[in-house]
Amino acid sequence: MSECTIRDKEPDLIADTAIPRGISPERVRTDGGIIWEKSTELVPYPIALSCMEQTVREIRAEETQERIWLLEHPPLFTSGTSAKEADLFNPRGYPTYPAGRGGQWTYHGPGQRVAYLMMDLSRPHGPVPERDLRAYVSFLEQWIIATLARLGIQGERREGRVGVWVVDPRTGAEAKIAALGVRVTRWVSWHGISINVDPDLSAFDGIVPCGIREFGVTSLKKLGVPVSMEKVDAILMEEWDRLVAS
Question: Which residue intervals define the domain BPL/LPL catalytic in the entry (predicted)?
Fold first, then answer.
């Protein structure tokens, strides 16, 4: 995916354009048959979709390895397959995109760690059996929870609510700190997770996040845990390794 290209489709034009350095994912390590990559600049959503689609095709054709891509987006909203137009009521001039993943509306922006996973689910991954989407989603939630625990935050699942939730010990308020949305194409997954490190939380006021009105959204910074994105990335990789080996 480090050689991913942008495909720009016009009525009579199809052109492939190389992605600028910094936006283009750069390899940071390869371990267990999985390539980890990171983009150091904000990645426009259409570019992310194009790169994921290209990588999914290559994985299905056995032309490349599985990937985990760490990135941040500029401010934008995405809609999942269950999204309702009425749940986007103040887009703030930010672009909106249909994502094709499961779920409803969410916000992406600077200060949010996004991890897109392109995985061949026709084979097992640690505790996740082959072709078991429910177990895969549960594994992603556990990955987030384990990462938060390393930072002193107790993340929890909630019945009927996808994602990871926390209770602020200072206020007792329950809020969502991480989201996930997955799409599977012929048993190759794409899209993934997002963890609120220090994003502009007011942007979530323009939507009903994930279709849930009763609860708010929080971040590591709001919970009193200021941490660098590099530290979050290091913990994500360490906890992935630990969970896959368990």
Answer: 62-246
Pairing between strand 76-79 and 96-98?
parallel
125 is in an annotated binding site: no
Does 22 carry a binding-site annotation? Answer: no
| Residues 3-29: tens digit of each pLDDT | 565 444 333 323 345 688 889 899 999
Q: Specify the number of domains making up the chain.
A: 1
What is the pTM (predicted TM-score) of this model? Answer: 0.90
Residues taking part in catalysis = 210
To the question of whether residue 138 is assigned a binding role by annotation, the answer is no
Task: Convert the pLDDT of each residue in 31-84 to its tens digit.
Answer: 888 999 999 999 999 999 999 999 999 999 999 999 999 999 999 999 888 888
3-state secondary structure 182-220: EEEECCEEEEEEEEECCCCHHHHHHECHHHCCCCEECCC
